[in-house]
Write a structure and sequence with these properties.
The chain contains 14 helices and 15 strands. The protein is α+β, with helices and mostly antiparallel strands. The protein has 4 domains: 9-124, Beta-Lactamase; 144-250, 2-Layer Sandwich (Beta-Lactamase); 256-343; 348-477, Histidine kinase-like ATPase, C-terminal domain (Heat Shock Protein 90), CATH 3.30.565. It has helices at 9-19, 39-45, 49-52, 63-77, 121-143, 168-172, 176-181, 184-189, 195-204, 252-311, 317-344, 353-368, 385-406, 445-455, and strands at residues 23-28, 34-37, 84-91, 97-106, 112-119, 146-153, 159-164, 214-220, 225-238, 241-250, 371-375, 410-418, 421-428, 459-464, 470-477. It is elongated and about 150 Å long. Helix 10 runs antiparallel to helix 11, helix 10 (252-311) packs across helix 14 (445-455) and helix 13 packs antiparallel against helix 14.
Length: 482
């Protein structure tokens, strides 16, 4: 049987130095020379381990603490070796200090001891934050543009408004202490029109006042003023009970700005609708003048030239050719007149939106060479005159965008009735909206289509087609009473 072999104390020390997360230094008690050091100590102190083994322990301490440690160790050496616990500040290589909790432990060799230190920097920072944060937080709360408050519901179900910031006097005209004593005073300020909504939120919150998100108006009698206020809260559970941390903000200016934006938007939409109506009326007048006046005059010239051509002597060959040429020019001009009049206001619109779109699609396909189809219901579509013109112009603009940007070979226009709404879809198989070139300031086509749709109380969406390409989807209400 082999004899028991005691463990190597130096190997045990090396293991402790390697595995522990604390800062460990072995040092000579008499000279304070560092004999060994682990990686954690070297990392915190900022010195390589080899350099630390050439240093003294007091080189790694605050200057005023090094002498105190040497004196204490000297007193301890006079008696039996024992453990020492203390607080100190270690000095890094860059001169900065950090707090540590230290245990000095004898190793069994009277000449050596272990310095085992635990870094307290995190704990010290937390302590300072706890010490300094209340006044800091009070300063933050005192400068926010609103009233901070805190509602507590205790485990027994009772509720209190346990904190209200001083801004309550400026926001509500009620001092913080008065509002805490009688939280229902806030409800008394709410306008009668907004009280039902507040009471609904209150019931959903279990009857705990000001414990929910809400926005409404209050009447300040002393100032003869109406304010919009916004309540925002967050909830948390504590040993005391449920706490709602809230802030009440005066949002009157933003509300007024939003209302002004909506009014301006409505006015711009009305103006755009008026401009479009005036433009369509002007197009109609121009089309009539071009067709009736200019077309009538051209027809008269055509009749005159034809009569002149019949009366010319047969031997006047040059004159006959010249008159025939002018007659042909008049024919081309009459055709151009019809084309211009149709572009200004297609006569087929008088026969309904389906006939107008059939004419437009046939013309578009002939001009671009794309395959164009129209899918429309067999039953008449009850659209008012203005709505029919707007739908026609929107489809016309959508087809123009396809020709300019889509690089498509096929386009489909579909009309469908959905209750009291007409749904129009213009779908191409082109490169899609993501690949289209960005607008350079002149591409107002989609904006114009959107405004036309909005003026009719409708909606226009430009999106990727289900398979490939782009789809313009328009929803327009049908004529009332149809």
């Amino acid at each position: 049987m082999s004899a028991f072999k005691p463990a190597d104390p130096n190997a045990l020390l090396r293991t402790v130095l390697r595995e522990t997360e604390s800062e460990v230094l072995a040092f000579d008690t008499a000279t304070l020379r560092i004999l060994a050091v682990n990686a954690a100590a070297a990392r915190n102190l900022g010195h390589p381990q080899t350099h630390l083994r050439d240093m003294r322990l007091d080189d790694c301490l605050a200057a005023n603490e090094a002498a105190m440690l040497a004196s204490r160790l000297a007193r301890d050496m006079a008696g039996p070796a024992r453990r020492i616990a203390l607080r100190a500040h270690c000095r890094r290589r860059d001169g900065s200090l950090y707090p540590v909790a230290v245990r000095i432990v004898p190793t069994g060799d009277d000449g050596q001891r272990l310095w085992i230190a635990r870094d307290l920097s995190g704990r010290e920072a937390a302590r300072l934050a706890m010490t300094q944060s209340p006044p800091d937080l009070r300063a933050v709360v005192a400068h926010i543009p609103g009233m901070a408050y805190q509602v507590l519901r205790k485990p027994d179900g009772s509720t209190t408004l346990r904190y209200v910031s001083a801004q309550s006097a400026r926001l509500l005209g009620i001092k913080a202490a008065s509002l805490r004593a009688r939280p229902e005073r806030f409800f008394d300020l709410i306008l009668d029109e907004d009280k039902p909504d507040y009471l609904t939120r209150l019931a959903a919150a279990g009857g705990v006042p000001m414990s929910f998100n809400w926005e409404g108006r209050i009447w300040l009698k002393a100032w003869h003023d109406v304010k919009w206020v916004n309540l925002r809260v967050s909830r948390r559970e504590t040993p005391e009970g449920t706490i709602w941390d809230g802030i009440m903000l005066n949002v009157t200016h933003s509300r007024e700005a939003d209302a002004e934006i909506r009014r301006s938007r409505a006015q711009l939409a009305a103006l755009a609708a008026h401009v479009e109506t005036a433009k369509e009326q002007e197009r109609l007048n121009l089309a009539r003048e071009v067709h009736d006046d200019l077309g009538g005059n051209l027809a008269a010239i055509k009749i005159g030239l034809s009569g002149l051509l019949r009366r010319l002597p047969g031997d006047q060959t040059a004159l006959i050719e010249r008159t025939a040429y002018l007659d042909n020019v008049v024919d081309q001009t009459i055709e151009a007149t019809h084309r211009i009049a149709a572009s200004l206001r297609p006569p087929v619109l008088d026969f309904g939106i389906v006939s107008a779109l059939e004419w437009q699609i046939e013309r578009f396909g002939h001009t671009t060479g794309m395959a164009c189809t129209l899918d429309a219901p067999a039953t008449p579509i009850p659209l008012g005159t203005d709505a029919a013109i707007a739908v026609f112009r929107i489809v016309q603009e959508a087809l123009t965008n396809v020709a300019k940007h889509a690089r498509a070979s096929r386009v489909k226009v579909g009309l469908a009735l959905d209750g009291d709404t007409l749904v129009v879809r213009v779908t191409d198989n082109g490169q899609g909206i993501a690949a289209k070139p960005p607008r350079n300031g002149s591409g107002f086509g989609v904006l114009g289509m959107t405004e036309r749709a909005a003026a009719l109380g409708g909606e226009l969406i430009v999106e990727a087609a289900p398979r490939r390409g782009t789809q313009v989807r328009l929803r327009v209400p049908l004529a009332p009473g149809k």
